Amino acid sequence: MTDIDFDAIPRARLPALLRTCPKAELHLHIEGSLEPELIFKLAQRNGVALPYANVEALRAAYAFSDLQSFLDIYYAGASVLRTEQDFFDMAWAYLERAAADQVVHAEIFFDPQTHTERGVPMETVIVGLDHACRRAHAEFGLSAKLILCFLRHLSEEAAFQTLEQALPYRHHFIGVGLDSSERGNPPEKFARVFARCRELGLHVVAHAGEEGPPAYIETALDVLKVERIDHGVRCLEDPALVRRLAASRMPLTVCPLSNVKLCVFPDLSAHNLKALLDAGLCATVNSDDPAYFGGYVNDNYLQTFAALPALTARDAWQLAANSFEASFADDAHKAQWRAQLDAAFAAATPPAS
Ligand code: ADE
Ligand code: ZN
Which of 71, 157, 164, 237 has a 20 to 30 Å separation from 281 between CA atoms? Predict the structure, then answer.
């Protein structure tokens, strides 16, 4: 709770406040931050042929009808990544953008199977990403942590092999997630590998309820025992599930621009972010795959607030506060960022006369 007088903050001040307040980003696929310009630069550096003539032609292909139509292009784009320097360059470009958006903490997904299947060693992927995370902390004071995602369209056995390959670098990632094609690949397919990850002390999260039904959110909770749900926007179809998520303060890492680009909602004005907050859910705002979906985290905040006039100053504060609450950072850092957030909002209220 907070004693900030949110009603005294004019709505016209919200864009500037949203842009400048500290926030955490908890749902960002680093391969989804590869801008077309960097894809072409890396393709040239590594002698990789692309089926697009130039940056404009590639960008023009970013018209998606559903999750799978996006994933096909996303995996093709990631094929230019070959060396440790490539992984560093990709992550560094994202971290510079994130720091400019006042992201003070980022928990970053990476998809090692996309790379190891092409013969790129696990070490190349993780060491390159880790180097960028360390530099962001040193240069920007931004704490950046890695979460290894298993691709759910592949088998659980492949996920076990991936975990095995990654364990020598265990100190470089804080948790595991589950992403890729949701429909037809329910959470329970990965029950045993998630149990093993929990035994290893890793944090566990999973995409659920993006395109898949609310039942996938339930099995992510009951079978995988996840600590956060990535997306989760379809939970509103099941009132009992909403009550359960709200009572447990189970975080949802919501990605509004992604949801529109992948046709989960027809447009931003139809997005259910306000309804999620009003239901008492611990919703957060994130960018998912910013290079493909038209915006980084601040674009997600600003465009969503512009499209949903019902969102208030309290909602803006709540979303940023939720991002810290939902993070895997320690309590001391959470308290420090919350104090900075409260100070930013308090400074936007007119002085008492
Ligand atoms: N991989 C990258 N972005 C994704 C998304 N939005 N859903 C599932 N898998 C993904
Ligand atoms: Zn995602």
Answer: 71
- Under 8 Å between Cβ of 129 and 86: no
For a pocket test of ligand 1, which of 179, 254, 287 has the largest count of ligand atoms closer than 8 A to its C-beta?
179
Q: Whose atoms come closest to the Cα of 108: which ligand?
A: 2
Q: Residue 120 has what DSSP assignment? A: -
- The 10s digit of each residue's pLDDT in 269-282 is 999 999 999 999 99
Q: How many helices (H) and strands (E) does the chain have?
A: 17, 8
CB of 180 shorter than 6 A to ligand 1: yes
Domain ranges of the chain: 24-343
Q: What is the pLDDT of residues 115-152, one digit of tens each?
A: 999 999 999 999 999 999 999 999 999 999 999 999 99
CB 110 within 8 A of CB 177: no
Among the options 84, 182, 210, 218, which is catalytic?
210
- State pTM to two decimals: 0.98
21-39 per-position pLDDT tens digit: 999 999 999 999 999 999 9
Across the chain, where does the E strand assignment appear? 23-29, 103-110, 143-151, 175-179, 203-208, 228-231, 251-254, 282-285
Instruction: Kindly state the tokens that stand for 333.
Output: 């850092």
- 123: Cα within 13 Å, side-chain hemisphere: 1
Plot region of 166 (φ>0 → left; ψ -120 to 50 → alpha; else → beta): alpha
DSSP 6: G
Is 98 a residue whose pLDDT tops 70?
A: yes
Domain 24-343, CATH class in plain words: alpha beta
Q: Which residue has the tokens 């032609």?
A: 57
Partners of 107 in the β-ladder = 145
Residue type, 165: Q
